[in-house]
Amino acid sequence: MPDDVINHELSLVWQQIFTWASWAIVAVMLAIAVTMWVRQRTPFYLIACLAAGVAAYAEPLYDVAFDLWFYDAHNGEPGAMWSHFTAFGVVQPNWSHSGYVILYASACLYAGRRIYQGRLGGKGLFVIWAAEIAASCVFEVIGTGTDVYTYYGPYELRIWNYPLVIGVLEGTQVVLFTIVAVHIWRRVESAWGLTSLFIVFPMTFFAANFGIGAPIIIALHLDGAEFSRGLVWAATFLTIAMCAAVVNGLTRFLPDPIGSGEPEVAPEPASSVRA
Question: What transmembrane ranges does the database entry give (predicted)?
Answer without folding.
Answer: 20-37, 44-62, 95-112, 124-142, 162-185, 197-218, 230-250
